């Protein structure tokens, strides 16, 4: 990381904000150097030589006082207006913007695209297309932050907040949650992939149906892309949730003492109504995937879990 | 030896036997004392204890962040560590540190008073503080809190950690803060020594006055907010709960309505100390007394209407954001004015570099960086990027630790001889100050860089890209730790067998330097009068033992001449140096 740079610029507002950032830096460094140089000069010139004695009666100087009030005031007003103007630009949502619903949940981001496709923690957008993010939360506060876009907006339960932006550069960039939201706040990290329009359309198709890969392979992809991987392992180790390794066909003890055989129906229910049967020894923290997982995706996930022996 | 000198000697020997520290004796006499100096010391002891606890939490959480993933603790413990670090440092250390600990000790002496206006209220405020602190400690030992010191809803309503006892503790601490504030305001109004007008009062008192105003006006709002939060948790009244038509963002408005002014409760007393230190150690009349005094009051007032700058990304209206941004810039200007005036004070002074002066310069450098980086955050569009990143963390540590804590340490060293009658070791103090300054910058400067690069705050783990800066920041805390350890060492040694302090080791001119070190219980033998301005270094020289020389060549100043009329120690300005024993 170059300590004197900002992150990559990938949205239409980024350069203006960076320009202002560096303008403030110039002003601040200038003022700081001025203050430091004057201080050090005084420290040297007026260090006590010999014994303390009476010093100069100088106690004020109106002209100086006015100068050092006015000049910083002017400087900060310039900064204020610039900042305000570029902030207003950021609030504008272009008329032909594509609307994407962004939902923060403990602890992942869910994205809903206009044509019914959805994804988790991976946001794919076409380069150059104006976007409108309609942001909200299903539990506590989160904050949707894309450093490369220089944009951030809180996700508040029962309310929509909005970001208008336009990706200007292809590549993969980080999405962070910037408002503290509990245990795995720091793992509420996603990626935004800015791709060409053709690639975007291809992605839409594949994420809907898996394209032409086998159900098990599609399930393995969904395991990562729908964020099951943050809580479930496939190697036998316990995490926030139980592992998936070798569970198919086994008997599982539930928190209420009953035993359940892990079959297709149970797996299906676990995804859509996770709190209906809670596995003994685990907290009921798994979010429901009702409305997020399509039929075909549920089938693929079940096939994948069955394949983990 | 003249008679007055001889008398003075006898008197000072008497004082040696009896001072506020050794008379009356016994632990009970301390616990029930109404002497502001003893209460000040008890506060000092408590805040230092909490500073230590908060510091240990800081070391632990920085250690956890040395590399991504788990290093020593898991995410739940980490979340409690940063919450406790913040809550303890803010509510139990920094808010009471200067006003209640140093202020209690020094404010009445500076005024030439025997005590604060309401000595028993003062003792009550201390016990209320202890009571509140014990709730916070209870919460700590019974599982801690993981909400961050801001207690944002709805998280603070949902989490199953001990939010209620912690907020109750903070609620109670608020009363202690209000009592202290009220006491100081009345004391400054009513108990100034004869001759001390508002405009030749030491600037420390202006700063504390402004602080007290905020304490009594803003703290009740925090109290209401916390009560609502507790009710929400206990009975689910729904005021912050969206599912019941409440508004979680409302909580943020309430919280910052207190907590932004509270930032100035923390920094104004620091500025107040710096005004004293820069004048004493420049041995020079303070530059711009009136602008410094008024800027404190201006800051106090404007600080009430800038809270929304914490919420630029909360979805509040653009108009609100614009107004808050504008006012935020406005409140920055008085702070800038102060810095310029402090630096101008050194011009044509006679500077020495004992520890208090070193901390003054640490303050000037670090607070300036803290203030300048505030410009980024007040700027709407830039704040959208920087909000809730490490840039903010670095910024407020530069202001709170680089500003207030440096001033507190400066003040502690400055008044240490007065408090305990002992000197500390100047060489070790220099070493420790240097380590603290370097350690501070190594810890917090990298945080500006990773913040600008997008590293969010309150993260237990992070992506690899930020590792070098995080590691550097952690190394810095070790340097800081060593610096503070050395300080603890030489201050303890000073208490045990430090060199005996004179009345006026720094050649200051404010009233506390005219009485013995440590002072007698009633602060002064006799009734002090203010015979010169607090910074009249052009006219008056007071030596280590309180012996005063007036400058025969000083231009006559009407205001002070009037004060001196009729006083026993008034002197003729006949061109000859008049030396006399200070007996006021
Ligand atoms: Cu979050």
Topology:
The complex is a heterodimer of chains A (309) and B (584).
Chain A: H1 14-45, H2 62-91, E1 98-105, E2 108-112, E3 118-120, E4 122-126, E5 131-137, E6 142-146, E7 151-155, E8 161-165, E9 171-177, E10 190-195, H3 197-209, H4 215-225, E11 251-253, E12 259-261, H5 264-272, H6 295-307
Parallel strand pairs in A: 1-5, 4-10
Antiparallel strand pairs in A: 1-2, 2-3, 5-8, 6-7, 6-9, 9-10, 11-12
Helix pairs in contact in A: 1-2, 4-6
Chain B: H1 3-17, H2 27-31, H3 36-64, H4 75-111, H5 119-141, H6 155-158, H7 163-190, H8 203-235, H9 248-282, H10 289-302, H11 318-346, H12 355-378, H13 380-386, H14 390-420, H15 426-452, H16 467-497, E1 540-542, E2 547-550, H17 558-564, E3 579-581
Antiparallel strand pairs in B: 1-2, 2-3
Helix pairs in contact in B: 3-4, 3-5, 3-16, 4-5, 4-7, 4-8, 4-9, 4-14, 5-7, 7-8, 8-9, 8-10, 9-10, 9-11, 9-12, 9-14, 10-11, 11-12, 12-14, 12-15, 14-15, 15-16
Copper (II) ion binds at residues 142, 177, 179, 181, 185, 188 of chain A.
Description:
The complex is a heterodimer of chains A (309) and B (584). Chain A is an alpha+beta fold and 309 residues long. Chain A folds into two domains: 1-40 and 62-209, Cupredoxins -  blue copper proteins (Immunoglobulin-like, Sandwich), CATH 2.60.40; 215-307, Orthogonal Bundle (Cytochrome Bc1 Complex, Chain D, domain 2). Helices cover 35% and strands 20% of the residues of chain A. In chain A, helix 1 (14-45) packs antiparallel against helix 2. Chain B has helices at 3-17, 27-31, 36-64, 75-111, 119-141, 155-158, 163-190, 203-235, 248-282, 289-302, 318-346, 355-378, 380-386, 390-420, 426-452, 467-497, 558-564, and strands at 540-542, 547-550, 579-581. Chain B has a three-stranded antiparallel beta sheet with strand order 1-2-3. Residues 558-584 of chain B have low confidence and may be disordered. At the A-B interface, helix 1, helix 2, strand 7 and strand 9 of A face helix 4, helix 9, helix 10, helix 11 and helix 12 of B. Bound molecules: copper (II) ion (CU). The site of copper (II) ion (CU) has 6 residues of chain A, from loops.
């Amino acid at each position: 990381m170059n300590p004197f740079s900002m992150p990559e610029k990938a949205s239409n507002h980024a350069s203006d904000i960076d320009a202002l950032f560096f303008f403030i830096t110039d002003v601040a460094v200038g003022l700081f150097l001025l203050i430091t140089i004057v201080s050090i000069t005084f420290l040297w010139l007026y260090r006590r030589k010999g014994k303390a004695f009476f010093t100069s009666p100088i106690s004020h100087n109106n002209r100086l006082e006015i100068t050092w009030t006015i000049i910083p005031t002017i400087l900060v007003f310039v900064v204020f207006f610039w900042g305000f103007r570029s902030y207003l630009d950021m609030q504008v949502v272009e008329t032909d913007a594509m609307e994407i619903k962004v939902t923060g949940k403990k602890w992942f981001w869910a994205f809903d695209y206009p044509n019914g496709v959805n994804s988790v923690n991976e946001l794919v957008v076409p380069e150059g297309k104006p976007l409108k993010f309609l942001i909200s939360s299903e539990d506590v506060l989160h904050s949707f932050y894309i450093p490369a876009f220089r944009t951030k907006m809180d996700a508040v339960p029962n309310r929509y907040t909005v970001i208008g932006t336009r990706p200007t550069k292809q590549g993969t960039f980080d999405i962070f949650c910037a408002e503290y939201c509990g245990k795995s706040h720091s793992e509420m990290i996603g990626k935004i992939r800015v791709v060409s329009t053709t690639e975007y359309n291809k992605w839409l198709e594949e994420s809907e149906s898996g394209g032409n890969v086998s159900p098990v392979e599609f399930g393995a992809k969904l395991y990562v892309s729908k964020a099951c991987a943050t809580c479930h392992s496939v190697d036998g180790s316990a995490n926030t949730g139980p592992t998936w390794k070798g569970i198919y066909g086994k008997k599982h003890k539930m928190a209420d003492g009953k035993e359940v055989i892990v079959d297709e129906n149970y797996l299906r229910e676990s995804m859509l109504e996770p709190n209906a049967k809670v596995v003994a020894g685990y907290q009921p923290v798994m979010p429901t995937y009702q409305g997020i997982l399509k039929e075909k995706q549920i089938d693929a996930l079940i096939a994948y879990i069955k394949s983990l022996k | 030896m003249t008679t007055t000198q001889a008398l003075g000697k006898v008197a000072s020997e008497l004082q040696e036997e009896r001072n506020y520290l050794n008379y009356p004796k016994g632990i009970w006499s301390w616990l029930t004392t109404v002497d502001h100096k003893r209460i000040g010391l008890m506060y000092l002891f408590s805040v230092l204890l909490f500073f230590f606890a908060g510091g240990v939490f800081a070391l632990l959480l920085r250690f956890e962040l040395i590399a991504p993933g788990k290093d020593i603790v898991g995410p739940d413990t980490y979340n409690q560590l940063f919450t406790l670090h913040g809550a303890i440092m803010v509510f139990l250390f920094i808010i009471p540190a200067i006003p209640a600990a140093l202020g209690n000790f020094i404010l009445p002496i500076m005024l030439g008073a025997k005590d604060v206006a309401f000595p028993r209220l003062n003792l009550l405020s201390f016990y209320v503080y202890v009571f509140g602190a014990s709730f916070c400690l209870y919460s700590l030992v019974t599982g801690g809190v993981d909400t961050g010191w801001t207690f944002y809803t709805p998280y603070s309503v949902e989490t199953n950690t001990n939010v209620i006892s912690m907020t109750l503790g903070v609620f109670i601490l608020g009363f202690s803060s209000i009592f202290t504030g009220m006491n100081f305001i009345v004391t400054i109004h009513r108990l100034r020594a004869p001759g001390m007008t508002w405009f030749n009062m030491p600037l420390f008192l202006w700063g504390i006055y402004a602080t007290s105003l905020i304490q009594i006006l803003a703290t009740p709002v925090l109290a209401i907010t916390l009560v609502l939060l507790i009710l929400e948790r206990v009975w689910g009244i729904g005021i912050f709960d969206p599912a019941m038509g409440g508004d979680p963002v409302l909580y943020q408005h309430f919280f910052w309505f207190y907590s932004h002014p509270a930032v100035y409760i923390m920094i104004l007393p620091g500025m107040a100390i710096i005004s004293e230190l820069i004048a004493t150690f420049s041995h020079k009349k303070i530059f711009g007394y009136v602008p410094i005094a008024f800027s404190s009051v201006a800051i106090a007032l404007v600080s009430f209407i800038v809270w929304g700058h914490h919420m630029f990304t909360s979805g509040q209206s653009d108009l609100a954001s614009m107004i808050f941004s504008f006012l935020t810039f406005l409140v920055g200007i008085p702070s800038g004015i102060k810095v310029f005036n402090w630096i101008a004070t050194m011009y044509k002074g006679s500077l020495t570099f004992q520890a208090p002066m070193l901390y003054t310069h640490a303050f000037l450098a670090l607070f300036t960086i803290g203030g300048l980086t505030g410009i980024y955050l007040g700027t709407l569009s830039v704040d959208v990027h920087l909000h809730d990143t490490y840039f903010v963390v670095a910024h407020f540590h530069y202001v709170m630790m680089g500003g207030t804590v440096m001033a507190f340490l400066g003040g502690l060293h400055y008044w240490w001889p007065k408090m305990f009658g002992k000197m500390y070791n100047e060489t070790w103090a220099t070493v420790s100050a240097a380590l603290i300054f370097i350690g501070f910058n190594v810890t917090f400067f990298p945080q500006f860089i990773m913040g600008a690069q997008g590293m969010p705050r309150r993260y237990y783990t992070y992506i690899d890209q930020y590792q070098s800066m995080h590691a550097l920041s952690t190394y810095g805390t070790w340097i800081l730790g060593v610096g503070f350890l050395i300080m603890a060492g030489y201050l303890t040694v000073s208490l045990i067998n430090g060199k005996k302090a004179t009345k006026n080791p720094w050649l200051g001119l404010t009233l506390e330097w005219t009485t013995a070190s440590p002072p007698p219980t009633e602060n002064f033998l006799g009734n002090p009068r203010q015979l010169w301005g607090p910074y009249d270094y052009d006219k008056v020289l007071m030596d280590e033992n309180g012996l005063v020389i007036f400058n025969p060549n000083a231009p006559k100043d009407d205001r002070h001449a009037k004060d001196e009329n009729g006083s026993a120690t008034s002197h003729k300005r006949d061109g000859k140096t008049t030396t006399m024993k200070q007996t006021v």
